[in-house]
Amino acid sequence: MTDTLEQQHLDRELHLIISEVFGDTKPTFQGEGPSTGVPALFIRLAQCNLTCSWCDTKYTWDWKQYDIKKETHRRSVDELITWALACDTELVVISGGEPLLQQRALVHLVRGLLADGKRVEFETNGTVAPDPQLLMDGVRFNVSPKLANSGVAEDKRVIPTALEVFASSGRAVFKFVTRTVAELDEIQQLVDRHHLAPVYVMPEGTTAERLIETTRVLADAVAVRKWHFTQRLHVLAFADARGR
Predict the structure, then answer these.
(1) In this structure, are strands 39-45 and 91-95 parallel, antiparallel, or unpaired?
(2) Residue 60 belongs to domain spanning
(3) Helices (H), ranges, the chain
(4) What is the pTM for the complete model shown?
(5) For the residues 27-53, what does the mean pLDDT come to?
(6) pLDDT per residue over 157-209, tens digit each?
(7) How many domains does the chain have?
(8) Rounded mean pLDDT of the chain?
(9) Would the pLDDT of 10 be above 60?
(10) Half-sphere exposure (CA, 13 Å, Cβ side) for 236?
């Protein structure tokens, strides 16, 4: 009986609850951060511990608005590794939702991807510290701490102990979704308080028109602070189509 229970536990660990995978039949790019424009495969996991008002992937967690049975699927780690290795794309982006909510199984996934020459980037909100086993060569974290504009209480969206792990790992960049010049002061406070670097500022928006407008509002002020400025390439290129 004990062996059976242990096997059931292991089986659960080696599965992930996903929303979608894409980038194979319709090639796409990493749309944000330091790898913007790099061809990429995407594994988007379901579930999130935040409820950002402007979230553009609410179908991964908002079960009042979306049907959890239609929007989520249970996939084995081995199945996901096989899927990724069938493509010659080097970069695999693991996003969500919040992917680090399922990181026990992710350790096995990442090891399998790296063993065959893939490179992995996580898109995370920075509230969950990464398992030390994920802090390995070939893995990077695009950490996106949420600002007050998310509508989430600060004690839920800013977890100092988690940010400290990312900041000290040497494997993270910090990417902030921003609407106004005034919000840059809020970013500066977080950067100074938690020693976050390097810093990327990304305009909020799900249309090209909105991104261009916000980019022009922010550009001079971001340049003065000597932070990186990143776009949302998938919105500009594919009009924010799902699965691109």
Answers:
(1) parallel
(2) 2-172
(3) 2-13, 68-71, 77-85, 103-115, 154-157, 160-169, 183-194, 208-225, 233-238
(4) 0.93
(5) 97
(6) 999 999 999 999 999 999 999 999 999 999 999 999 999 999 999 999 999 99
(7) 1
(8) 95
(9) no
(10) 16
In a domain, 16, yes or no: yes
CATH number for position 149:
3.20.20
Reduced to 3 states (helix: H, G, I; strand: E, B; else coil), residue 36 is coil
Taking alpha carbons only, the member of 79, 72, 160 closest to residue 113 is: 79
Under 8 Å between Cβ of 80 and 31: no
Give 84's contacts (C-beta < 8 A, 6+ positions apart). 41, 43, 92, 113, 118
Side chain identity, residue 77:
V
Tell me if 12 is assigned to some domain.
yes
What pLDDT sits at residue 2?
52
Residue the block writes with tokens 């967690």: 61
CA distances from residue 91 to 34, 46, 56, 142 in whole angstroms, order as listed: 12, 20, 22, 13
In a domain, 17, yes or no: yes
DSSP string over 46-104? P--S---TT-S-GGGT-TTTS-HHHH-EEEEHHHHHHHHHTS---EEEEESS-GGGGHH
- Count Cβ neighbours within 10 Å for each residue of 85-94 and write b for 16 or more, e otherwise: eeeebebbbb
pLDDT digits (tens, 9 = 90+) for 131-147: 999 999 999 999 999 99
Classify residue 17 by burial, with Cβ atoms within 10 Å: 0-12, 13-18, 19+: middle
- On the 0-12 / 13-18 / 19+ scale of CB atoms within 10 A, 51 is middle
Residue reference for tokens 């002061």: 185
In a domain, 235, yes or no: no
User: How many angstroms separate the CA atoms of 137 and 228, rounded?
Assistant: 23
